[in-house]
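Show me any protein, keeping tokens residue-aligned.
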Amino acid sequence: MIFKTEVRVRFSETDMAGWVYYGNYFVYFEVGRATMYRELGVTYNDLKKEGLMLPIVEAHCEYRHPAKYDDVLEVHTRITEVREKSLRTEYEVYKEGVLLARGYCIQVCVDAERKARALPELLRKKIEATEK
């Protein structure tokens, strides 16, 4: 399932040329990911209450076309791989149907001591329910 999130480019997200600074695409990915987890019904706060976190251990972005101040972007987010202790989430950022950037991140489930743990069953079930 693809989760869609709208983001409007703020002036502070642009560089001297007036284009979105490349690192901000990872911020847009985060907005899409947080929205996805909320829509799944399992937020970062829910995981934190269980003593778990999902830090990013790998991130990648391919840039195709620039965005500029006040553009309305649509971030498409989906989980493409679920392993025992990790997730791979992929993103595509569009403006008016044109693909601007795409990328992915890998998150690993860890406890407070940063020891890798199995993904919580509740999260796994919510993800599996979207695949049907």
The helical segments are 24-40, 44-49, 121-130.
